[in-house]
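Why Pseudaminic acid synthase? Reviewers of the renewal asked for a concrete example.
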Amino acid sequence: MSIDKHHTIFIGNTAVGAEHPPFIIAELSGNHNQQIDLALAMVDAAAAAGAHAIKLQTFTADSMTLDVNSADFVIQEKNNLWHGASLHGLYAKAATPYEWHNVLFERAKAQGMLAFSSPFDASAVDFLAELNVPCYKIASFELTDIPLIIKAASMGKPLIMSTGMASLSEIELAVNAAKSAGCQDIILLKCTSTYPAQASNTNLLTIPHLRDAFDCQVGLSDHTAGVGVSVASVALGANVIEKHFVLDRQAGGVDAAFSLEPAEFKMLVDETERAWQALGEVKYGGSEVEQASKQYRRSIYACENIKSGELFTADNLRVVRPAFGLAPKYWDSVQGKHAKQDIPKGTALNWSHVE
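Here is what the prediction returned.
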């Protein structure tokens, strides 16, 4: 495919880049509702839907915030999905227990998927390193946590960073920090940090700008409903798509409202690959497979029996399909000319017929 290319990044043994189908990540988040059987079923369902990887979030409520119920630590926005919840209580509900990680990672590997996580503090990075994750993911809210980025970037693995809310200068600071720690395999994800996000505030045109500004691979962390926004992002250069995943939205889950169910996730995998296949190159004149269709264009045919010496007119010639006669652009050139010979109705006109 002759589209803009940046060096291929290998996440485990999976090649990620413009030359390869979009890399699709199923974010399990806290939709397992603290049930290990449900979490394992989610891994199996993500594999069946065609996900290339599952992603967890590695934190504890205490590593995220303080167990305090003052106004600072309670979600105040009335239009927020989690309005009224304490931060500590919400994170306790959403956390994936550390002892589950290896079990879920091994299940994913058995299903042919990669598995990794977003660490939220330095100890989480070390924990994931012991599990030999193929990459690290920095969440949007942690993009300004430069010490965390340096820690994750120093582990010798690719680094995926979401950029929700971030200014260009904040992204630059994060990228430079990662590079200073020795990481060159960086993927930046356009993200809108509202839950759910709306298509109208997703601003996908940022994706090619992000790619060109930082000369790195780009993708989308998508919190909108459906698959349309993700599919559109591929046309703008997204190589990686991250979507939250749930078995059944109606059954609930902390992120269920903006998560895809298995059938929808399969559609995401299929349609983003179809969009990638459609990119191709700038090309006019028809592709090789279109050449046979050119015979069904129009050309000039005798629509009546024409006697030798008779004038060609609109009464005895017509422009019709197929295209074995003179092209329609010669219509005016043959009007009023004489026939050199008898021409039966249905004959494709050519210059040997014209006197």
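The chain has two domains: 15-59+95-279, 288-353. This is the kind of structural detail the renewal will allow us to pursue systematically.
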